[in-house]
Specification:
This protein is 1% helix and 46% strand. With 380 residues, the chain is mainly β. The chain has one domain: Kelch-type beta propeller (Neuraminidase), CATH 2.120.10.80. Strands 6-8-40-37-36 form a five-stranded antiparallel β-sheet, with no helix packed on it. A five-stranded antiparallel β-sheet has the order 7-35-34-31-30, with no helix packed on it. Strand 20 and strand 21 form a beta hairpin.
Amino acid sequence: MVRHIGSGPTAGTRQAISREPRQAISERPRRRSARWAVAAVGAVSLGTAACASGTASQAGSSARAATPAGSHSVGSGASGTASRATTVTVTEPSWQLANPLSRMVVLPDGSGALALLGGLTSADTSADGAFRLSLATGTLSTLGTLPSAVHDGAGAVIGGTDMVLGGGSTSTVPTVEGVPAGGGAGTVVGQLPQPRSDTSATTVGATTVVVGGYDGTNPDPAVLSTTDGTTFSTVTTLPVPVRYAAVAALGSSVYVFGGMATEGTGVGLPVATVQRVDLTTRQASIVATLPEPVEGAAAVVLGGRIFVAGGDTSSPGSTATTSSAAVLAFEPASSRFTDAGTLAQAVAYAGSAVSGGAAWLIGGEHDGQVVATVQELRPG
């Protein structure tokens, strides 16, 4: 919901303010909210390409082709048989965001565009803007304004409305805010059963599933489902309550990758747990272990495969976290991870969505510093 780290790190490693339960840290109030409007931004650059007032010039792109470096046998379900090689190509377009932004909701918005809602600015303030981002040019156009500035909420497109479920600014909120997908005034659509931030969502058919987070004081392990953004039911509870998890769905299964521990001796640290929510049986279980603990990663489905990208990780015995550039392919049948590539920039807490057969990582944080980087991931 609210950033749990200090701003403006000067070293490659971000030291934690405290590794006691982070409720008090995470609830430090925001001084103000911010609207990151297209007309209010200056020119920014990525290499020799420049973007001013939200419009990017097309001067080519740089790409990193990923080569698998091996596979990781993880979890009790590992079969010992290597998964087929899976790679992604990571490309940075010639444009980037006009302003750094992280922890926003990013949703597909028709052919060749994404919707960006809310988020956290480099000034450590929550944003209330809703914008359409052209993936061809990097141009931002206004969709509307959220009723309240918010970040660290979950996102979904439900009934033609782009929705932000929960999140927070100065405190965790239960509100579901919506902006018509085609643009228009933002409204409060509904209410979650209780305040909830640091949460994630994925959509399976007509059902949106909300996973992970906390209520401002305590973890919220309940897995919620909704078809309209106003009525919610409890599917099950997570065996390991987490915040800032990466979530993706294949078939009737929702996979929850890592996150921040909310209890026990490792509270406030990234975890390596992979949890599966079976929407048919309404049961949740631990099914695998990541090669390293990670929080704030992105999970996407490309070509029928789940990829987990970026996030913040920590070394055993350390309370410091660093941003990861790793991209992993996950094979549910064998509970194995395969190295799939490397991000152009290591990031955590990026907004992510799939559009046009590619996954897009928008903004995020590099070792605690909010960035404007845009990265495209394509299979192969």
